[in-house]
Design a protein that fits this description.
The chain is an alpha+beta fold and 145 residues long. The chain is built from 3 helices and 8 strands, in the order αββββαββββα.
Length: 145
Amino acid sequence: MDVTEIRKLDGYLKRLFSNPRIRVVPRPQKADMAEIYNGAEFLGVLTVDDEDEDRSYNFRMEIALSQSPSEDVQRLNTYLRDRLGSTKIRIVPRAKKTDSMEAYVGEEFVGVLFIDERKNVRSCVFEMAILDVDLEHDSAASSPS
């Protein structure tokens, strides 16, 4: 990722989560990766997907869960709101699925939370795809008039 992409991704995430403290930071020695922070707090990793003709990005954040599945939706709502600094995030259970949930910012679908249960340890991975077209607003906003 070059400096322009990092700036676009940074602006997109700040705007999406309504949080000016979100930062996208290049990962040293890894041209296809960046790290996402809320202030100084590490949130997750951003990777580039160049397999298709369209360039896209994947934000991945790992989350530890309690042992009580009945608390997952509320706990994940609170956790993501706190970590991402946005009250607009909401988690919605998926119909007929117990191993994943959907994440929305307002009415916009933004990602999936995958529940993993192994060896009596429960965890969750939040994955959010960012398409190249999602960043077009930022390039138009940063272009000189």
